[in-house]
């Protein structure tokens, strides 16, 4: 990223915007995950106070604001969004603390790596041989590389958890839909059964009614066709 003097004294010219945007794109090139380190985006050191972070944010937000860069509005909007998102992370005490913990872990891992290098040299009989990280600049760069790695690891975990959460919500919704369809099918079946049952009852009543009328008509017809014997008359004397 920029030197400390460039970070402390940002300009407002078109060239300064181009410089800033170029550095933002460099972050993208160096990391699979874009703009994960808000300190790098705002071009400040992690030990800077929140009040100074806010000043830096205001300076950069003016620098990259789309209205200030009419010839580069699309890129300016992208940079403005990145700067704003980074400030929101560092403005919040909890998320800023998490970012600082990443730096602490990166320093601890780097120091452990250096200790292992020295141990190896000592084992090989070269205890006084220098290592690249003896140079303060290279030591700082080693920490920087580790910071980027840890931010990337953290982002991968976040994406994995998000994906798992989405899959869980999807499975839950699919189960809900299946249950809704089952309830709907049961309700329709019950409704059809009730309608069919009523139809069967009506048909049976109609059949019973028709059968009764038929029997009565047959009985009447049978009685009409029967031969009635003559009445018995007593003989007169």
Automatic annotation (TrEMBL):
One of its GO terms (cellular component) is nucleus. PANTHER family: DNAJ HOMOLOG SUBFAMILY C MEMBER 8, DNAJ HOMOLOG SUBFAMILY C MEMBER 8/LIPOPOLYSACCHARIDE SPECIFIC RESPONSE-7-RELATED. The lineage of its organism: Eukaryota, Metazoa, Ecdysozoa, Arthropoda, Hexapoda. Residues 213-222 have a biased composition (Basic residues). This is J domain-containing protein. Residues 37-107 form the J domain. Residues 118-137, 159-237 are annotated as: Disordered. Transmembrane segments: none annotated. InterPro entries: DnaJ_domain, DNAJC8, J_dom_sf.
């Amino acid at each position: 990223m920029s030197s400390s003097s460039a970070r402390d004294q940002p300009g407002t010219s078109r060239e300064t915007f181009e410089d800033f945007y170029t550095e933002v794109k460099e972050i993208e090139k160096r990391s699979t995950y874009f703009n994960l380190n808000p300190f790098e985006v705002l071009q400040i050191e992690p030990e800077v106070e929140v009040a100074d972070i806010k000043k830096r944010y205001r300076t950069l937000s003016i620098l990259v604001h789309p209205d200030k860069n009419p010839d580069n509005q699309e890129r300016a909007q992208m940079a403005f969004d990145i700067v704003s998102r980074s400030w929101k992370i560092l403005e919040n005490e909890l998320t800023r603390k998490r970012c600082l913990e990443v730096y602490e872990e990166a320093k601890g891992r780097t120091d452990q790596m250096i200790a292992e290098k020295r141990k190896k040299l000592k084992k090989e009989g070269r205890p006084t041989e220098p290592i690249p990280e003896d140079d303060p600049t290279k030591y700082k760069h080693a920490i920087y590389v580790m910071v980027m790695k840890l931010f990337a690891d953290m982002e991968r975990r976040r994406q994995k958890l998000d994906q798992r959460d989405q899959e869980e919500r999807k499975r839950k919704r699919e189960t809900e839909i299946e249950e809704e369809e089952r309830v709907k099918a049961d309700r329709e079946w019950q409704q059809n059964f009730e309608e069919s049952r009523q139809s069967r009852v009506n048909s049976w009543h109609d059949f019973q009614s028709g059968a009764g009328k038929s029997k009565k008509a047959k009985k009447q017809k049978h009685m009409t066709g029967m031969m009635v014997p003559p009445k018995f008359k007593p003989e007169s004397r």
